[in-house]
Design brief:
By secondary structure, the protein is mainly α. The chain is elongated and about 60 Å long.
Length: about 200
Amino acid sequence: MARTPTGAAVLQPEVTQAITDAVLHELAEQGYGRLSMEAVAKRAGVGKSALYRRWKSKDEMIAAVVTEFSVTRAAAADTGSLRGDLRETMQALIDWLAHPLFSRILPDLVAEDARNPDRSRSTRENIGGLRREVGEVMLRRAIARGELPADLDLEMGLDVLAAPIYWRLVVRRAPAEPDYVDRLVEYALRALGAQGA
């Protein structure tokens, strides 16, 4: 069994979780531009060195926390049917975008990305790219089962699945009624050219 070298920092999971929670709360309350390492450390009840042991900079810290928060909420559903997979995937997307903290964070990150092209690329790759990979696996599985056409435009299909939810929750700030997911699944099945839709 490998020993931790003498003098090496041991990252305690409960401290990391406290910092993660602090980052999300500070982002929601202060926004990207006004968030500071000092405020995160104070809220988490740790010294700034605990942050710098984990991340080199504010940008790296925010990217890591937001990516972890976002990607772990991407449903990797395999219910045995495209309809079931879409329902779980879309509900998970709604839960992510409507999360009490993240619903306040995302618009600020989108605005920051518009001002900072390097950040925008990071957001697209670290959040959007990883979430789209999960969605692509779902669509390819449906193609293999014969539920979707073999020549499905995957890029367009992924846009069709996510765009209505983003538009409704983030841009319009409209609620997702109790039957919204079921109605959206039926529209998506038709848009994707699903067999029997």
